[in-house]
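Section 5.1 Outputs to date
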Amino acid sequence: MKSQEIRSKFLNFFESKQHKVVPSAPMVLKNDPTLMFTNAGMVPFKEFFLGQKKVVNARVSDSQKCLRVSGKHNDLEEVGKDTYHHTMFEMLGNWSFGDYFKKEAIAWAWELLTEVYKIDKDILYVTIFEGDEKDGLAKDTEAYDIWKQYIAEDRILLGNKADNFWEMGAQGPCGPCSEIHIDIRSAEEKGKVSGASLVNLDHPHVVEVWNLVFMQYNRKADGSLENLPATHIDTGMGFERLCMALQNVKSNYDTDVFTPLIREIETITGVKYEDKTVSGEETDIAIRVIADHVRAVAFSIADGQLPSNTGAGYVIRRILRRAIRYGFTFLNQKEPFIFKLVETLSHQMGSAFPEIKAQEQLAHNVIKEEEHSFLKTLEQGLLLLENMTANSNEKVISGRKVFELKDTYGFPEDLTALILSEKGLDYDQEEYKVALKEQQDRGRQATAIETDDWLIISKNNEEEFVGYDNLEEEVKLTRYRKVTTKKDGEQYQLVFNITPFYPEGGGQVGDKGYIETPNGDVIYVVNTKKENNLIIHYTKSLPKDISASFIAVVDKETRMLSESNHTATHLLHQALRTILGTHVEQKGSLVSSKHLRFDFSHFSKVDADQLQEIEDFVNARIHENLTLEEKRNIPMQQAIDEGAMALFGEKYGDNVRAVRFGQSIELCGGTHVAQTGDIWYFKIKSEGAVASGIRRIEAITNKAVGNYFEGVEVTFNAVKESLKNTKDPVKAITALQDENSALKKQLEQLLKEKAGSLKGDLKNEITELNGVNFLAKKIDLDAKGIKDLAHELGGELDNLFLFFGAENDGKATLTCYISKDLVASKELHAGTIVRELGKHIQGGGGGQPFFATAGGKNPAGLDAALDAVKTYLN
């Protein structure tokens, strides 16, 4: 059975059980402060489990893209070493929000597996929760009794809390679960060892295929449990593992989910998968790593997350670099090649996930650029490692230096270990682990957060946002909790029954303002965010009377400035598509009160004339004073039919808000000006590349433009004054530039003549030191002059060792030139010499074995460096 059919049968089955089949949510989470990625099928439905969103469909089913790079069985560095764990995977799931419970969930799971997929019941095992004394939980006899109707009791196994009690996190909804395991070993293996004894022991052919979670408790901050108001079902079946069982293979990588990618890797690299030679195991791991990782990276890019150095982007970059490293080390791929797999992936999965087909070119370009960049990093790391080993007389290299290579330069630890072993060297692994732990501890301390339980004041699970129409509103507190972080200290998160405060989302920052109490006290709101459908207001203190009514007031000026910038992004988007072409798509944005940032797809630099045209287009729309037209809570398809543009990587509900200014129509939940004239003016500050095929424009509007123009005028007047208040500053500056150019040519000629004169004098000062023509001297030339002089002397004299010191503009420089025959015969390295002697001038440097330079801030140390260089020839 092909994977496409397996997926379809699952969704069709649950559709027949009155479930609404929904598309996969994005794998990348944009507005969830607790998670960066969808790491389980239930993540898109968290607010329903928490009772913080009204349930429209009580039964839901889907195939959800998930990403895991940490946690139980999901260490990134282990993926590829076995045949059944992955970074990205599909989770087939069915959910009940307060509707059916254990009886139906178990019955339908059994029916689907044994009657629809025709899996032999004699190769299945199930587990149920054995109970936990500490939590005061008894064995899940309800699940046990239901399972007895379908499977022999010796195949119903007890599982502990670690395996059979599922929790969303340290706090929140949780409950016992029942896992279904499948034993696909040969009959001979089954005859020797019972499958029951291998369940949950990481056997590659006795694996969990489906987990049925019975959500019935809430874990509080103090660790205690309370019953949820309603019980829910949350199931997740590993699609890749199910395919392995139904396609009668022994590895997820042998299913048609992965074989097209593996065949393409074989074709590109010329390396055969499942080669039985000695090196075959390493190449097999490399091929599995690449096949797995390209899926995770390409789908993340398709969902809106580009590789970067922070947050979710760093995770994606780390996954991709691991794949590049395995190709580099074990498949001998020294040029980019992983990007070539995107076409195969798109063809294979585009029908089930149309976003990968729509963003195929973007993923192709971004991955290719990332490969180029990291391969250069690997080259640099190899050079640094070469210098590190050349400068060490020890057989064991410092673990901290190896960590520095990884942390600062991105050079992987295992590649360092491999290269060192080839040289007969090792590194201090304990020292490396200490350095790594210190960094991890610093990171944990910086991001550590202590979160108390919500204190519920009234059972109002949905609040109303009125901030489109009002900036001031009478409110009642419905819940609050205290949170503590190292960065912000103690803060309170407040939730009201109604609020005018816009929460951070869609690129727009959250509102600030204040809460006024009945006695006139003011509590400042420092930020507003959204979590699990709750609009959360961050404050430093609590009202004294939490049951009172308050006046919530949004900071009018910062909201107005944010609205100006947000509306400007819509007009900018329209301008880009009009002027550059309809291939332009928004790929990200930031809207604050101070400025706006807009990322978009375009494969070349936007030139100055185009930027001016874009700026003029936006300002023309501003001057037209276009009125905001919005349609709230309309069906998604209606909005699309009316011309609204759905934005890249955003998650939309069944009903949406459409925002229109003239011909610009977008789906948007953000706040906007009432008419474009309120923006006043739009000014582009910069344009540049973010990644391959992604450009970024940064711009300002409104008061920021006024401040910008004032600054330009001040600068212009200062320039005029320095030019003696000339009537034509441009002409005066051009004349100065011409004069400066002429003087520069004269100076270069004088320095050249000086160097020529100096060369003869220096040749007479060269002496013999231990059979080498040697000169160490402080000279008065710039860096270029010294380099030219050294190479000229080197071209006229053999067996030459030159070491020059110089002082220019209060800085010190050292230059070392060594004849190439000396480099080999005396094992000298100019780069090593200047790096070591650079300490005398409080600096450093490096270069090639025959020529290198160093710079420093202490010219007083030049004489000491010149004296010390002789020791290298003793």
